Amino acid sequence: MSSHLQAHAAELAHGFSLCELAEGLGHLDMDGADDVLIMGICDDSRHAKPGYAMLCLPRAEGRASEFAESARELGATAIISVGIPVDTQLPSLHLDSMGQAGTLLRRMFKTEQAGAHLYGITGTDGKTSVTWMLREALSRYQQQPVWSTGTLGLMRSSDDIRDIGNTTPSLLTMHAMLAEACREHVHSVVSEISSHGIAQSRIAGLDFRTAIWTSMGHDHLQDHGGYGPYLAIKAGFVCDCGSHGGNVIANADHADIRERAPASSRWYGHGLSRDDVDMGWEQELPGMLRLRSRGEEVVIEDIPLGDFHAENVACVALILMVSQDIGLQELPELLSGITAPPGRMQDVLAGYGQVFIDYAHTPEALERCLRAARKLARNRLIVAFGCGGERDREKRPQMGEIAVEFADAVWITSDNPRGELPAVIASEIEFGMQKPYRAEVHLQLDRDKAIGEAVAALAEGDILVIAGKGHEAYMEVCGRRMPWSDAEAAEKYLRRKNSGTGLVSEGEDICA
């Protein structure tokens, strides 16, 4: 079941006077504020109601007064602004920082002493998989529901998933979610923490007791001013958690994480004989993982395919040991048979094992995905992928270079071109493919046809990876999101191939 949960407005369990909310936080304007009772809060003026306070955040600068007036016309009784001026006739509370706004929301939702253990997972790649696996493992261990938020939405259970709009949703949504979790007596909440969520303070006031840093690579650099600021944003989140006494779990195999994570971090890394990590891991066979900690070893069986998933499971293992005081010998029972989220090295026809879809949309993720797939291929490795429009352009030639280095055949196609021309994006991908190509390269900008052609090219022992979109159910073109599924397209063409029916016309071959 899927429903929507973006808390542009939330009712409170009981009312607060504006003065009560303002105590010790900010500057209160206008006489009569003592008599103002706040019964709810909204961060979108269209959701204002009588008795509600309108929360004006910094991103509303320039239009905050307009939004405040719209909220007043719908019955709002107060304005709460954060770091921006608001011209309003309503009683108003002016806060200097998002930190104060977070404290205010904890006060309003009565979650100052929230019992839920908040886990925050950041990193360029691996966030969604670690979040999924940790939720599943904690549910097994605690024998009760564990909630998670992230790319896939708010998961209260495997059949109760709610859309939250962004990987890390708005400040109000995060606090409303925590309040709901507290009412439901949920003991653990696992959240993906994106760079945008950190930079825009969408997690202000939330007390993360465990922070996890999974990886560091290239993504969203255009939004943060380059790699350095992007790295600093991630480091700031985990260091803040560590400085307040929280646990920090970090990946020792990334030099930048090694340098920037706090000294108190607990480390996991590839290799069983190393003495610089708290948890070492090795994968001797697909679907099996060996873990070593403090001289002891265990084997975890029946895990998702791919070295990167072995690393994700090792991360989850260390999180469980550190945050829940679980012994190494208890881990096989908790982690054997653990699953991966949709679109992460997902076998399109379960058990068929020839076509996989994966969300890999960064150079690092694509390389890891193709390395894993190479181990499964008895013959050729084929990849179909593209790059998103209006996103980090630096990664396009890098991903092209990786594709021809690790695959035997490559289909360059479209992937959420947004407002850019797909042909331009494809040419920038191709720019990284040094000639003569080390692989067979095709251009087919129609993603459906590209998948059909790649499936048609499959021979016995070949593996096809369709990368970039994973679980996404849309293709974004010129501001519109149109329905799309890599898995459905691949399954359609696989079934046609297996039944001997026709596939699609061939695309433009750009081999040298």
Automatic annotation (TrEMBL):
Subcellular location field: Cytoplasm
An individual GO BP term: cell wall organization
Pathway given in the UniProt record: Cell wall biogenesis; peptidoglycan biosynthesis
EC number(s) recorded for this UniProt protein: 6.3.2.13
Domain Mur ligase central, chain residue ranges per copy: 121-317
Family annotation (InterPro entries): Mur-like_cat_sf, Mur_ligase_C, Mur_ligase_C_dom_sf, Mur_ligase_cen, MurE/MurF_N, UDP-N-AcMur-Glu-dNH2Pim_ligase
Keyword Translocase attributed: no
Annotated keywords: Cell cycle, Cell division, Cell shape, Cell wall biogenesis/degradation, Ligase, Peptidoglycan synthesis
Signal peptide: none
Molecular functions per Gene Ontology: ATP binding; UDP-N-acetylmuramoylalanyl-D-glutamate-2,6-diaminopimelate ligase activity
Gene Ontology CC terms, in alphabetical order: cytoplasm
Classification via SUPFAM superfamilies: MurD-like peptide ligases, catalytic domain (SSF53623), MurD-like peptide ligases, peptide-binding domain (SSF53244), MurE/MurF N-terminal domain (SSF63418)
Domain Mur ligase C-terminal: 343-470
Family: Belongs to the MurCDEF family. MurE subfamily.
Protein name in the entry: UDP-N-acetylmuramoylalanyl-D-glutamate--2, 6-diaminopimelate ligase
Protein species of origin: Mariprofundus aestuarium
Organism placement in taxonomy: Bacteria, Pseudomonadati, Pseudomonadota, Candidatius Mariprofundia, Mariprofundales
